[in-house]
């Protein structure tokens, strides 16, 4: 068909052309053309064009395992049960204007460009159109633009003669909708097995493959890698369905679950993600599967080509706003060991969210308001001016606090003046405000010493920020008729499932934690427009936050006005206690709370002593000048990892000896394993510069995985995407630690059993070392652990 300028094509001609056979794919039936567009569709084997177009049109694509023999590619199943195949036919369906013939015309141009051996004529037409238009149709991107950009990227023509086309691609290809996250290893294995089941038993409903609420997936990672990489329980579930079906033939279920499992294995396609030669049956009918070496090699190669795992955006490529509330020390007090867990867990959670494309607010809800400041201001008025204390440390303030508390408890006149100071501070009294500000400034400087050691970043937004908002929030509860007036004068809010109420206002008219946290929730949901708020505190505050969340839900803050189904997610991650060797709260020998700076510096000091011994024994690859810096990185990372590698809800005993151990699941072991891989690559650069130059230029030949340790390492490398999928559900950093430890063990086994430098397989093995290092460094970053390239 002749390519025409759609802007001058008559409507009659377009209608005539529209009635002809659609060369871009099968025609959509009349019913599906006019059916109501839904937010969700099922799709089999989607291409980049389909994924990008769905993001553009805000359509959610759910994975489907049911293909269609005639389609030979992607298949989209509409909510009304229609089936559409052919990329451009699917794009037409996704388009919000099904009768937009201009889009149809440009999709035909795109199809011709894709099929043409000599595309210059088509590119010239395209260039002429884009010379006066930013997009193909209208003033914004359409599915036609999506198709054209994807094709231009894939065929990669020489665009030097077509500047308008060149600008079109350059200006739009960076749009987040074109980011293709790809499927994970386990998803590809699922696709092979589940599509095979559907080819054998086509009457099986799609719901068969869905994970029930509270249930587990039929495809899971095998507990023992010696038996297989994955195990599938589909045959057990399928047997029950076929056994109870009136339409099933007796011979189908005669062999029981094992017979069905064997039938599935026998029909698995060769040459895909699954190594069909190693499949076997375990137990009552578990299908044990191994990933094929060729598939593993291709996936590792892609990871290397992209310079490691890439940040994954959320489903529609949009930047969702998420808030993480963590650390939260008190002004005029030292940060102690009790602040460790909230700070490092919150940092890691923030990094996970940022890596997956969320706009993340890292909020430090410091305790900078309340009655305690009245007594501290009074004590400092009597004993020092704000100018006198400006040079003091927070340690001095901690001593001031103790003395002020003693005066407050023992001197009634002092107590009265302290109470008046609170009123004066809240009213903006100049002297009180100046002292309060000085206390805050000194405290911030002290906090920063901790945060710099822990490699943490936060934005302070303390209790004082929300204080002016509290009366307005209470008024909203009154308007919603959710306030109960207590006889004492307090204003209460009762929520379902809790016998005690939230106290929105005290009987004396003051405000407490309940008041502040409800004001903070309202600000975060309504002003910051956060779709998710995550609070990280010790587990004893769990009930308090569940009550706050219930109240926010009851008043309607968590529901989207446009859709009641879309709700703001409120989440509390509670953590246990850091214990001493006596199984009590970790304290100094004198019984004082351990200062966090001292705890971190002690770890660094011990690590420096250890490294100096290794340096003297010529077992270290660092210089004397590098030693202190390396010791700090290892010492601080050791403390963080020792906490992060366990479920946050558990208590644990703090032990320098265990966390600084070079063996076992410790940061030191992981960092040494990483440094060993880096060292191998460095030696390769010195001894085999040509081979290493090819690897750095990404010109080395394809990986060939033969040795079991090579296959095992590649299998673990490729599990990163599976890890990310799990992390997005519960945000628990210990899952990264478990993965890192398994990956490091696989890498250690690999370099022990497989000679790298000078071997016939050197290039493949160097690529495995490089890929492992790339993944490890991303995991270190997600945990907030600093690392070094040599130890």
Please describe what this structure looks like:
There is one protein chain. This protein is α/β, with parallel strands linked by helices and 791 residues long. The strands form five sheets. It has a five-stranded parallel sheet, sandwiched between helices. A four-stranded mixed sheet has the order 2-1-3-4, with helices on one face. A hairpin with a 5-residue loop joins strand 12 (484-485) and strand 13 (491-493). Helix 17 packs across helix 18 and helix 22 (513-527) crosses helix 23.
List the helices and strands and how they pair.
Elements: H1 11-19, H2 30-34, E1 40-44, H3 48-56, E2 60-63, E3 75-77, E4 83-85, H4 87-94, H5 101-115, H6 120-130, H7 143-155, H8 163-172, H9 185-200, E5 219-221, E6 230-232, H10 234-243, H11 250-253, H12 256-266, E7 280-282, E8 286-289, H13 293-305, E9 321-325, H14 340-355, E10 359-364, H15 372-383, H16 386-389, H17 394-410, H18 412-426, H19 430-454, E11 459-460, H20 463-466, H21 470-479, E12 484-485, E13 491-493, E14 502-505, H22 513-527, E15 532-538, H23 542-555, E16 569-575, E17 578-579, H24 596-616, H25 627-644, E18 652-653, H26 656-659, H27 667-687, H28 689-696, H29 708-717, H30 720-730, H31 734-753, H32 762-783
Parallel strand pairs: 1-2, 9-10, 9-15, 10-11, 15-16, 17-18
Antiparallel strand pairs: 1-3, 3-4, 5-6, 6-8, 7-8, 12-13, 13-14
Strand content: 5-15%
The tally of beta strands, per DSSP, is 18
Distance between the termini: 66 Å
Number of helical segments? Answer: 32
Net shape: globular
The secondary structure category is alpha/beta
Summarize the biggest pleated sheet. Answer: 5 strands, parallel
Q: What value does the average pLDDT take?
A: 88
Q: Helical residue percent?
A: 40-55%
Low-confidence stretches: 1-38
The radius of gyration over CA amounts to 32 Å
Name the strands of the widest sheet in spatial order.
11-10-9-15-16
């Amino acid at each position: 068909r002749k390519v025409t300028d759609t802007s001058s094509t008559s409507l009659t001609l377009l209608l005539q052309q529209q009635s002809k056979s659609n060369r871009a794919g099968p025609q959509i039936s009349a019913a599906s053309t006019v059916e109501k567009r839904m937010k969700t569709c099922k799709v089999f084997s989607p291409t980049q064009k389909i994924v990008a177009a769905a993001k553009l049109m805000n359509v959610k694509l759910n994975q489907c395992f049911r293909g269609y023999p005639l389609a030979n590619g992607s298949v989209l199943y509409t909510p009304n049960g229609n089936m559409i195949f052919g990329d451009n036919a699917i794009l037409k369906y996704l388009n919000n204007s099904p009768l937009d013939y201009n889009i149809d015309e440009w999709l035909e141009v795109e199809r011709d460009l894709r099929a043409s051996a000599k595309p210059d004529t088509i590119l010239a037409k395209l260039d002429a159109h884009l010379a006066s238009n930013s997009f193909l149709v209208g003033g914004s991107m359409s599915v036609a633009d999506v198709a054209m950009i994807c094709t231009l990227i894939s065929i990669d023509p020489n665009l030097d003669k077509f500047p308008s086309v060149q600008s079109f691609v350059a200006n739009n290809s960076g749009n987040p909708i074109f980011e293709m996250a790809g499927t994970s290893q386990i998803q590809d294995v699922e696709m092979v097995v589940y599509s095979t089941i559907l080819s054998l038993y086509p009457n099986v409903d799609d719901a068969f493959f869905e994970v029930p609420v509270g249930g587990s997936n039929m495809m899971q990672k095998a507990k023992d890698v010696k038996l297989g990489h994955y195990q599938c329980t589909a045959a057990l579930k399928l047997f029950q369905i076929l056994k109870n079906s009136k339409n099933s033939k007796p011979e189908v279920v005669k062999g029981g679950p094992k017979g069905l499992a064997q039938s599935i294995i026998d029909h698995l396609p060769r040459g895909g993600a699954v190594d069909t030669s190693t499949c076997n049956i375990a137990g009552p009918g578990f299908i044990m599967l191994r990933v094929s070496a060729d598939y593993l090699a291709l996936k590792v190669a892609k990871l290397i080509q992209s310079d490691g795992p890439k940040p994954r955006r959320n489903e529609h490529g949009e930047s969702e706003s998420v808030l993480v509330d963590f650390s939260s020390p008190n002004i005029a007090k030292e940060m102690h060991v009790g602040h460790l867990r909230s700070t490092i867990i919150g940092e890691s959670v923030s990094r996970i969210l940022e890596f997956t494309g969320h706009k993340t607010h890292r909020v430090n809800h410091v305790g900078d308001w309340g009655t305690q400041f009245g007594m501290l201001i009074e004590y400092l008025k009597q004993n020092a001016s704000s100018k006198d204390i400006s040079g003091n440390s927070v340690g001095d303030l901690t001593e001031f606090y103790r003395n002020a508390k003693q005066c407050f408890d023992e001197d009634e006149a002092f107590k009265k003046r302290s109470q008046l100071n609170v009123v004066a501070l809240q009213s903006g009294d100049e002297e009180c405000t100046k002292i309060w500000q000085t206390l805050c400034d000194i405290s911030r400087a002290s906090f920063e010493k901790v945060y710099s050691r822990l490699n943490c970043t936060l934005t302070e937004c303390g209790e004082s920020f929300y204080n002016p908002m509290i009366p307005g929030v209470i008024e909203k509860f009154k308007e919603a008729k959710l306030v109960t007036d207590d006889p004492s004068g307090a204003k209460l809010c009762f929520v379902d499932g809790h016998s005690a109420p939230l106290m929105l206002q005290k009987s004396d008219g003051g405000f407490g934690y309940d008041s502040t946290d409800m004001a903070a929730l309202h600000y975060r949901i309504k002003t910051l427009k956060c779709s998710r708020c995550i609070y990280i505190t010790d587990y004893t505050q769990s009930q308090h936050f569940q009550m706050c969340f219930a109240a926010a839900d009851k008043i309607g803050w968590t529901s989207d006005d446009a859709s009641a189904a879309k709700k703001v997610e409120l989440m509390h991650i509670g953590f246990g206690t850091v214990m001493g060797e006596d199984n009590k709260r970790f304290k100094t020998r004198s019984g004082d709370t351990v200062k966090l700076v001292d705890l971190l510096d002690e770890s660094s000091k011990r690590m420096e002593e250890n490294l100096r011994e290794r340096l003297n024994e010529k077992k270290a690859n660092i210089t004397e000048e590098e030693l202190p810096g390396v010791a700090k990185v290892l010492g601080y990372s050791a403390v963080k990892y020792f906490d992060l590698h366990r479920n946050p809800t558990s208590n644990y005993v703090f032990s320098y000896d265990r966390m600084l151990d070079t063996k076992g699941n410790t940061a030191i072991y992981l960092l040494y394993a990483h440094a060993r891989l880096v060292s191998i690559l460095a030696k390769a650069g010195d001894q085999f510069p040509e081979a290493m130059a090819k690897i750095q230029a990404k010109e080395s030949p394809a990986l060939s995985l033969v040795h079991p340790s090579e296959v095992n390492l590649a299998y673990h490398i490729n599990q990163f995407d599976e890890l990310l999928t799990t992390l997005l559900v519960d945000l628990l950093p210990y899952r990264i630690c478990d993965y890192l430890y398994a990956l490091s063990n696989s890498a250690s086994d690999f370099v022990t059993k497989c000679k790298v430098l000078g071997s016939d397989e050197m290039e493949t093995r160097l690529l495995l070392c490089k890929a492992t290092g790339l993944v490890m460094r991303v995991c270190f970053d997600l945990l907030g652990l600093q690392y070094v390239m040599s130890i």
